[in-house]
UniProtKB/TrEMBL annotation:
InterPro entries, alphabetized: ARM-like, ARM-type_fold, Clathrin/coatomer_adapt-like_N, Coatomer_bsu_C, COPB1, COPB1_appendage_platform_dom
Gene Ontology CC entries for this record: COPI vesicle coat; Golgi membrane
Main location: cytoplasm
Described purpose of this protein according to its UniProt entry: The coatomer is a cytosolic protein complex that binds to dilysine motifs and reversibly associates with Golgi non-clathrin-coated vesicles, which further mediate biosynthetic protein transport from the ER, via the Golgi up to the trans Golgi network. Coatomer complex is required for budding from Golgi membranes, and is essential for the retrograde Golgi-to-ER transport of dilysine-tagged proteins.
Protein name: Coatomer subunit beta
Superkingdom of origin: Eukaryota
GO BP, one annotated term: intracellular protein transport
Amino acid sequence: MEKPCTLLLKYDNKTPAMVINSVLEGHDVPAKIDAMKQAIALLLSGVAMPDPFITVVRYVLSSEDHKLQKLLLLYLEIVEKTDSRGEMLGEMILICQTLMNNLNHPNEYIRGVTLRFLCRLDEAEVIEPLIPSVVLNLDHKCAFVRRNAILALMSIYRFSVGKQLVDNSPDLIEKVFEKEYDHSARRNAFHFLVNFAEERAVNYVLSRVHAVDYWRKELQMEVLHLIRNVWRDNRGVKEKYVQIILSLLGARSVAVTYECAGTIVSLSLAPEVMREAAKTYCQLLISQSDNNVKLIVLDRISELKESHREVMVDMVMDIIRATSSPSLDVCRKTVEIVLDLVTRRNIHEVVLVLKKEVMRTQSADIEKNDDYQQMLVKAIHSCAVKYPEVAGSVVHLLMDFLGDSNVDLATDVVVFVRDIAETNPTLRTFVVRRILDKLDRICTARVCSCALWIIGVYCMSLVEVESGIATIMQCLGDTPFYTVSEEEESGDALKNSQVVKSTTLSSAIPAILADGTYATQSAVSPLTAVQESLASNGNLRTQITTGDFSLAAMVASTLTKLVLRLEEVQPLKVEINKATAQALLSMVYILQLGKSSFLPCPIDDDSYDMIVLCTRLLCNTGGQVRKTWLQSSRLSFASMLADKQFHEAAEIRKAQLSHAQPDDRIDFYNLKGRKGTNQVELEADLKSVTGKFLRDYDGGNNLNCIFQLTGVGDPVYAEAYVTVHDHDIVLDVTLINRTKKTLQNVCLELETKGDLKLVECPQDYTLGPKSSKQIRAKIKVSSTKAGRIFGNIDSVFSNVREGIIIVLNEIHIDVMKFIFPSTCADVSFRTMWAEFGWESKVTVRTSTQDEKELLNCIMKATNAKCISSPFSVGISNISILVIGRRSTLEGECGFLAANLYAKSVFGEDALIHLSIEKNSDILPNGRIRIRSKTRGIVQSLGDRMMEEFGRA
């Protein structure tokens, strides 16, 4: 059994013991100090040094230097004081005499340090002769000596042998406590009484119930500790205990107030008492300026919310005041707790506060502005979805953020507006009107696409449809988007830019050509001036003329829907033909722009096909086509919202479900023997503490996680059982001596390759004939990168100089054991996808016929989770499906796209995008793209995908 370590140092440089001895024998005090430090570090590193101990006793024990005496006490604390038979070493007699002299030393510092050193000794032979001196120090004139003398006596009394040596310790400490005036010494004395003379401490507290409020905070903390210990035993005086706790809730010390609230929560279940604890936590949350304190108090409030939700619902308005903190972490945790406590009684007050916070971020330039605004928008969105009656009071405010430069914030707002338009029919007219007013101010293509989708789906009346078409045409500006002279001008500028060479460093940037040579290119595009002159009519026109043809395809789709809707609500055929002609003309000019040399990048095939399809539909509209375009998209979106709300409600019900029944059996497996302990119970206990299970290397099959390291015919047979737990890999190696001779100095030497580090080197052992030995080695993992473990076994036969060396088989570490499924928002996924630089592309070629089965196989192989929002739309004969939930996998489709997300135990994000197409007679084919911030996880996942589904 390993001994407890009270001192821990990191030391790599191993100085020989002979050098340390020679220095300690000298008279140079600074050199002796350095030598003592090296000796202590060597002992902590596991190096046995018997000779320096004798040298320390002879040449350091008598030194008068205070620093050297302190190092001597540290050395004596960790040095082995007994021999191999467990008997006390003879040199300890001199140690006892030195300690006795120090306890009677005229210097108060030496006395106090020696008394503190005695707190870490448990050898009765050393302590017994020192007890009279320790007792005498209880009455010393220096408070530093007295408080350490109390601690030393408590440490001695803690051991069973100490109770026999100092059986009158409670009487001595009680007398010291009554006459002591130093606050720290009184606290130590009362701590002794609380732990070893509980009745005396209880009688003292109960006799001074009304005076506890005026005690120092150290004693008040000990009183609370005493009450927690004796609460169950003394039920007759429970009212007095409650009176003490309630009186301490108003204490000046924040620590005492916090402990009082925690004591009440742990000892009582009464709603009135819980309400007092909740008020105390809320007061601490508002009054304290330290963000760490706020986070700790918020954790306690969250725990109280789980057990006493009814009480905490009334405290929502007090909790939400913490959003005034400048720390974004505090605000985020506060909003999470508040959203969980929102009910119909307080929803209006909560939303009002959130609205005020949003307006405050608009008027004040605070550090947490962007992220804080986004968090508030999401909170309001959640409240409006859960309680639609408050949506009308926040839509007007949030729609001002549609044109915000923060992409994430504007995206959250437009998603919120889209959900409100579907779930609240009474607000659709207002939403559509405000979006039409704000469309020319939206500066982000993603937000503009969603706004166009809202316009195309929810413009129902004649006024709304005509206003929608007119607004889009106004944002597009005059057509055509360019003239022939401008195209020639841009072509000439492009030719001139190819022959002009830069002469200044400020206007040129280096470029790498296809053959690997370097060239210089202009940092200013010659088309910029022309494009700026043509893109001055609005943001929508600007984005299209700069090459965003995905947005152009969305414009064509929206115009198609509006024209089809106009045919239903407009009785005049002339107006319908006029709108159709305008829409067709705009689409044709967009196609002309995409195919011209005006832009450096032509239109992509998907956008081109989409715009062409829209032009054909406007030329020949049928009943089935109109139904598909005007109804299917909205029905799919409504189905997505319903499915999302259903799963969120199911998760809430699952979280509130009790996992333990009152009549369940309780297993105290720690009281069982080793044979009676079940591995499942051990892992369940580990799960309750760390939140994660131990994982065998094979993911559950105990046979596959055993690796054979040597051959059966080798003199030493070795096999390893590999267990992975977060950042650690544990190798339980079994060595078997298959010879009839004794093997001495059997050494298992291990080395690692990759981001693996061996933190515990196995020791040397002696194996008898046909005997076995189990050795444990621990390896640290620092990143998600493939690694290998290799090594050899060295040994020599008994009475023979000849040795043996056996090379071990390699163990390849699978990085999938360090990757777990996780979730993130779609906006965060897109942001990380744009920021991460490492990417791996795998072309899929598999024999799996079903694309849904292929998706499940990829999720299983990569330990990733599908996070895509479910969206389904049919276009002609092709059914496009972006999957996210099980309901969207129903039916047949020819195209499948999904976003998968996983996270490693080291905090690395793994982004996976899957795009698969399947024709009727051809196997599914497509591409898997993997992105991450680090190279290791991209390379590892790419190799795994290549092995499973890819081809070169």
